[in-house]
Amino acid sequence: METRKRAGLALVAATAAVATVTAPAKSDSISEFYNKNNLTIVIGYSPGGGADLFARFLARHIGKHIPGKPTVLVQNMPGSGGIKALNHFYNVGAQDGSRTILTSATHTLAQLLGRKNIRYDVNKMQWLGTLTQDTTSCVVAGRTGIKSITDAKDRQIVFGATGASSTSNQHPVLMRDLLGYKIKIVTGYKGTAKVRLAINTGEVDAVCAFWASQALGPLANQIKSGKLVPIVQMGTKPHRAFGNAPVIYDLAKNDTERAIMRTVFKPTELTRPYGTAPGAPKDRVAALRKGFWSAVNSPELQADAKKIGIIVDPLDWKNTLSGLAEIFATPKSTIQLVKKAIKAK
Asked: N or C: which end of the chain has fewer CB within 10 A?
């Protein structure tokens, strides 16, 4: 009896302690917190790439929609295809809601495949929403004369990429190992903008992770002039941004190959997930979610997107979670096929 009594008192004490830790701050303290602290958006890539473009675009607007109207900063932390930044953000960075991160579809796939350098859990992040649902492609230098990825059946194409787990590496690896194309991949660039510079100097021929937002917006002139040529696109249907480039699924020889492709390419549909750390206070997370959704639907942001030609097709945090749940529901048998196809380590 005495033992049960002590256990009951211990449970009450533990529950009270948890309640003390997790009790939300008063609503007016949210405004005070963000008035005194900057809001940082971390991205795992160098300036000039697609992730950097969207982070800086969001930074121009979201602060106006958060209580306290914080100053919004963008922090570039390139390395390992963005995984370095997410590892740091998840384990080392502040957990108080002052830091957010614009991640990549790459990070979800890397966890799904059990990559060894993963020190985060996508499912424990506190997601605020998805900034856009974009479509990706691979492009090649016009100087090469290559018009389609199928040209790589007869000649080698040299792709530049960031980290081994990045979209810019995974996609050409899949085309090489699954479809048998003659592809060489040079990794280690600090962002796709750096790869494009390498294309200009002739170091490499091509790059993947080239988005419709880029083709229709800031890099439209390079497409129109023929300096960059889309040679394959990874959406489920053709996108006007990529002209006559073949859809990757049409190149599959059977349903098994299509299932492998779908596992690799589906995460890119949640193109720019935006979240904060697992330990951020719930009331601040709620304010950030509300602020994000208000910002992406504001006339000012929509007009800015139209002006610079980027695609803003957002999801709220609930639909972002649903999309991630669908990805993580991929059958283990399919995941094993993907690991074999892209030599996941």
From this structure: N
Helix (H, G, I), strand (E, B) or coil at 285: helix
pLDDT 10s digits, 280-318: 999 999 999 999 999 999 999 999 999 988 889 999 999
Residue 140 contacts residue 205 (beta carbons within 8 Å): yes
Global pTM value: 0.79
Q: How far, in Å, CA of 84 to CA of 12, rounded? A: 41
Three-state SS letters, 201-226? HCCCCEEEEEEHHHHHCCCHHHHHCC
Distance, CA of 272 to CA of 103 (rounded, Å)? 6
The alpha carbon of 17 is separated from its chain's Cα centroid by a whole number of angstroms, namely: 36
Helix (H) and strand (E) counts in the chain: 14, 11
The pair of structure tokens assigned to 243 is 């002209």
**pLDDT, tens only, 37-88:** 999 999 998 888 888 999 999 999 999 999 999 999 999 998 887 889 999 9
Q: What are phi and psi of 323, to 5 degrees?
A: -65, -40
